[in-house]
Amino acid sequence: MTPAVQLKPQHHWPRAGLLFGLLAVVLVALYFDTASAMVGIWWRSETFTHGFLVLPLVLWMVWRRRLHLSHLQPQPSAWGLAALLLVGFGWLLGDLVAVNALTQLAFVAMLALLVPTLLGLAVARSLLFPLTFLFFAVPFGEFAMPQLMAWTADFTVLALRLSGIPVYREGLQFVIPSGNWSVVEACSGVRYLIASLTVGTLFAYLNYQSSKRRVLFIIVSILVPVLANWLRAYMIVMLGHLSGNKLAAGVDHIIYGWVFFGFVILLMFWIGARWSEPEPSVSAADIDSVTLNKPLPGGTPMTRPRFELFTLLAALILAWPLAARLALDHNNATAPVQLSAPAELSTNWVADTSAPAIFEPAFQNPSASLNTSYGQGEQRVGLYLGYYRQQNYQRKLVSSQNVLVQSQDPLWAQVVSGTSSITFNSKQVNIRQGELRKVSVSASPTDERLIAWQLYWVNGQLTASDIHAKLYGALQRLLGRGDDSAVVILYTHKGQGAEGAERLQRFVQANGPRIIALLETAQHTPTHP
Predict the structure, then answer these.
(1) Rounded CA separation 520/518 (Å)
(2) How many helices and strands (H and E) does the chain possess?
């Protein structure tokens, strides 16, 4: 028996590199919509402009590893194919419920997985950091904005009180003797955090060799911008207060914030550089990887890698989520939605059409909606239904843009938020509860307040959770049941004590089944032009 021919590693690289590049082009072509959406966010959002630098940085880091890579034997891996299959399913789920972050994470993961699939696990291990750094290209992290805003408000109010300044706070808004302030999206510090984490991770990789030091510096790069943003917010309010609101007003506070942040980050890098570790020199003899004479696991000597076969299999695996998406689209209802409010509900709740609704939730582009007030004697309850069908990235039930009240709403401000458990349609369900205060448009203050309850209806399932609503929606699509879903919002004047909440509970107990029946009728009744 003649032994298998051992080929020099470098003889495989031209063929493997060419097929890898071809497969990367196929991936971008198949998922061009996902890739272009990601680049569009880089272009529009200052928070994610760094995405343009990620790929060049990754290519530069790969180039730095060229000597090490030249001693590795590229060898396709079936594990890579299995991982591609799993990540493709993740992309399909994300696309079914129009979650940009999930589809873009899956796209970048598929790009990274082409390395172990076609070039092997040894090459992937050698390029582990550059492949991980690729994920900084995904515009991801704004989900943390509400929590960061809340923490910023907590710290600012506490620091003001410790400074001897009296503060009255409601939600993200607070009042001090010199004026009114509010924490908005720009004050969350998410831009500082994402920028610091991206640059800090790269700095840690290039300047440290110890995993402990790298992890420690990355943790610091997360904590420092958060703390810096808290101090920035406090300093801005103090500047405004002490200057009679002549300083730190308008765009000035944003400029001051970036100057302060830049100084803090430079200080962080200067201190971190004091503990930098030089990169050790590595000779070819030191490289402990799959080399010329190292057999594959099990003692089998290396044979000619089947790059072409794995390229074909990988291309088929990349294409299957798109084929599945097209097949599922045929099961989705396409008829327009008709949604009309009954003139009367149970226990003599009668629709009041004499005046426009006092409140309009900020839900974008529903397929159909209604916003009606129902009265029973002197009591009034508002009912808003936003119905969604044929959801896509421009029209979807669960979105960061779909909220009770936008932060810049000129009429209402949400001052309290939380959850509660109620009986709805004979079931115990959790709902979101918010308290809204009317924004004063005159010199005299107003204390008009609303209590609002919110929950989702997803093809018969009731939930208050964004995540559960997305999961239910994806499951319904996979089962071929369409994507019909809706948001149900009830609102009424708060009144004294728990008066408003009690009124909403009575309305729900009497009319919960009618509301569900209304949604089911819209789902199952086809309309014709």
Answers:
(1) 6
(2) 15, 11
Element (H, E) at 383: strand 379-388
* Backbone φ, ψ for residue 57 (5° rounding): -65, -40
331: pLDDT confidence band, cut at 50, 70 and 90? low
Q: How far apart are CA 333 and CA 17, in angstroms?
A: 45
pTM of the predicted protein model: 0.82
Q: Do residues 491 and 438 touch, judged by C-beta distance below 8 A?
A: no
Q: What are phi and psi of 177, to 5 degrees?
A: -55, -30
Tens digits of residue pLDDT in 393-440? 889 999 888 999 887 777 888 888 888 888 887 778 889 999 998 876
d(CA 516, CA 527): 19
Quick one: which H or E segment has residue 176?
strand 173-176
For residue 411, the Cα-to-chain-centroid distance in whole angstroms is 28
Instruction: Give the C-alpha separation, 76 to 65, whole Å.
Output: 20
**What does the block give as tokens for 272?**
């971190």
Q: Return mean pLDDT, the chain.
A: 84
Query: So what's the pLDDT on residue 357?
Result: 83
Burial of 235 from C-beta contacts in 10 A (0-12 / 13-18 / 19+): middle
Comparing 173 with 165, which gets the higher pLDDT?
165
Angle, in degrees to the nearest 10, between helices 190-207 and 211-242? 150
Report how far apart, in Å, the C-alpha atoms of 408 and of each of 11, 87, 183, 413 are: 62, 38, 11, 8
| C-beta separation of 392 from 350 below 8 A | no
CA distance 96 to 475: 9
CB count in 10 Å sphere of residue 508:
21
The token pair that represents 34 in the structure block = 């996902």
CA dist list (Å): 133 to 62, 68, 226, 249, 432: 11, 19, 22, 38, 37
According to DSSP, the residues that pair with 362 across neighbouring strands are: 403
Distance separating alpha carbons of residues 191 and 399, to the nearest angstrom: 20
Sign, CA dihedral 265-270-273-275, equals: negative
